[in-house]
Amino acid sequence: MVAVPPVRHLLKAKDLADARYVEPITVDDMARAAGLSRAHFSRQFRRAFGESPHQYLLTRRLERAAAMLRSTDRSVADICMLVGLESVGSFTSSFTRTFGESPTAYRRRYPDPMVYARVPTCVLRAYSRPQRSTFGEDAAPTAGLAS
Amino acid sequence: MIKLSTTQLWVHDQDAALEFWTRKIGFEVREDVTVPEMGNFRWLTVGPVGQPDIAVVLMAIPGPPMIDAGTQGEIANLMGKGFAGTLFLTTEDCQASYQELSSRGVEFTEKPEERPYGIDCGFRDPSGNSVRLTQVREMAAL
Questions:
Q1: DSSP B20
Q2: Which entry of A66, B30, B33, B137 is 20 to 30 Å from B6 by CA?
Q3: Which residue of B has its CA nearest to A9?
Q4: What ipTM was reported for this prediction?
Q5: What are phi and psi of A96, to 5 degrees?
């Protein structure tokens, strides 16, 4: 039996972050998944993946949060919970540090998703049809039909 | 006509890989040949039942003289970090496959989720290789 490379255990921690970031998991849970003490784990993780486990878990959550800000009308507090973070205050400040603007300002730059969500798809499609008359049918004489 | 026949996965332990790919995933053994005069090199391939012309080599990471010790370590490291490549599998029913494989102890990194291209989930083999399992959506002809 050949032993797995030691980094394989760190990958278990990374996988845990990927699979369960929506839950309020912490770096302690990641360290446990890797079977290492917290301090040792953080050092080893950074050496293997180039960033701290805290940073990895947080940026994973922030990416999801940003997507939800763009594509849903959920409140900032809701989105914070939905990505596994419990404090709206620290969510807002880490979001701002990462994206250079607050969640609310970030969302304002995108069209309100509700504009589209409420409109039935058949209507959206009908009204989004490009308006362009190319064949000159409008100008065609209708005399034959009228008579 | 050029066709795909065999692809390769680095594994840390061929016995563990064989056990995983046959017992847990349900692949069949295609070839298992050990060559004593080549330092007991073992050519081990598995493949999906019903696709006899496609196989995956479960390749142990060789050391010197084939690969120098430093490079051998780098490959093992990349594999263990999950960056040595991905295998993309398909299924007719992603949810059912997920249930079945989970019950056999396969560790999923992602549960089945709806994607534009179908329903998709992901797991790893014991060595760290990433595997996607997708129920491909029928796409309208372009």
A1: I
A2: B137
A3: B80
A4: 0.84
A5: -65, -40
